[in-house]
Amino acid sequence: MDVKKDIKAEKQLSAKGTTYRNFPMVPRVVFGADSFDQLGAILLSKRAHSDAPFIFLVDDVFEGKALADRIPLIFSDQIIFVSANEEPKTTQVDALVNKILESFSELPSGIVGIGGGTLLDLSKAVAIMLTNKGGAAEYQGWDLVQKPAIYHVGIPTISGTGAEVSRTTVLLGPDKKLGINSDFTTFDQVILDPNLTQDVSKEQWFYTGMDCYIHCIESLNGTYLNAFSQSYGEKALELCHDVFLGDISPEDSRDKLMMASWHGGMSIAYSQVGVAHALSYGLGYLLGVKHGIGNCLVFQHLSEFYPEGVTLFNKMIAKHDIKLPTGICSNLSDSDFNTMISVAIGMHPLWENALGPNWRATITEEKLRSIYEKI
Ligand code: NAD
Ligand code: ZN
């Protein structure tokens, strides 16, 4: 957390010829209660022509609900409801792309994702794959996308992942869970309407909100930390304090968690996540445990790495009376544990951020197994 030291280190690196990341940010963003109703006006100027529709990929939790009726459909625009019960898959992206290409003679004017991290990630991936050849699995990795995506808009309905601001879309592929990280992934437009998060269940609010909290802890305690990440991470952490430990109104809480998510995403954009995310990826890959809850399941056992962060996490759990599930790993075979361990250990940048270049000296297969066995 010593910024001066970091800046000095960066200068030294720079003199040695290091190139800093030049990453894209969301160019346009609206924030405010009920700002969703500006969507129609925003899309109007982006319509190619009447045969090029907007496709709205919408979490099916909103099917038959008032929000679906507020979607500004004109011409041949289409809503596709998608379940967020499972994390997004490359095959699901390919199927959506085929469906859209078969249904219309023209490329759509754009894709609008409405939902949590699952729908936001699916929308980003579909927008990319409408203009790039082959299947989504071929683009899991870093900077493999060749052509710009079509115009895409993200509208979060639950706060925490930072998917609304990131340059990645995390997908479960045939042999790995990995993002399509590219300059073309980032949304062209985001609408942050805190009122859309009003009906999220308490448990889901907590799990997805903790994703943001854990982003902050992992970024602020990582070796990749720099003044850019620190400034966003500290603000996000302060907002998480207010939301999860403070005494504020529901309206304030929704506003602040939405901005915490944004800042948390910005913080990791220029640093990296850490131990909880590496282990949570293993749980997600083998058991399909979703990101937010997976992070919580792991994080409770990480006092060795993040002592202050875990103490605060336990206070938040107690305050909101959250009962984390137990026994998730109790019936797993050796081969299952080995799969999770190898997925987790494979996340090299996350370990290096958490523990420095000699992370292998601390992180052994046995240590990871002992953490998984507690879950
Ligand atoms: P989610 O999208 O998986 O949704 C969780 C649950 O909340 C679902 O049941 C959904 O239907 C429900 N829900 C969403 N909005 C609601 C609302 N307003 N009212 C009632 N229910 C609502 O949740 P998430 O935690 O936001 O996203 C997790 C996904 O995000 C994972 O797939 C993870 O990999 C991804 N992720 C991506 C990034 C990134 O930078 N791209 C970062 C972190 C996580
Ligand atoms: Zn996360």
Characteristics:
375 residues; alpha/beta; Rossmann fold; 2 domains; globular; disordered N terminus; binds nicotinamide-adenine-dinucleotide
Low confidence ranges:
1-13
Q: Tell me the quaternary state.
A: single chain
- Can you tell me the CATH architecture of the largest domain? 3-Layer(aba) Sandwich
Number of helices: 14
Most strands sheet: 6 strands, parallel
Question: Which sequence of SSEs, written as H and E, runs from N to C?
Answer: HEHEHEHEHEEEEEHHHHHHHHH
The outline comes out as globular
Compute the separation of the termini in Å.
30 Å
- The Cα radius of gyration reads 20 Å
Number of strands: 9
SSE inventory with pairings:
Layout: H1 3-15, E1 28-31, H2 39-44, E2 54-59, H3 66-69, E3 78-82, H4 90-103, E4 110-115, H5 117-129, E5 141-142, E6 152-156, E7 170-172, E8 177-181, E9 189-192, H6 202-220, H7 227-245, H8 250-269, H9 275-287, H10 291-299, H11 307-319, H12 334-345, H13 348-355, H14 365-374
Parallel strand pairs: 1-9, 2-3, 2-4, 4-6, 5-8, 6-9
Antiparallel strand pairs: 7-8
The site of nicotinamide-adenine-dinucleotide has 31 residues, from helix 5, helix 6 and helix 10.
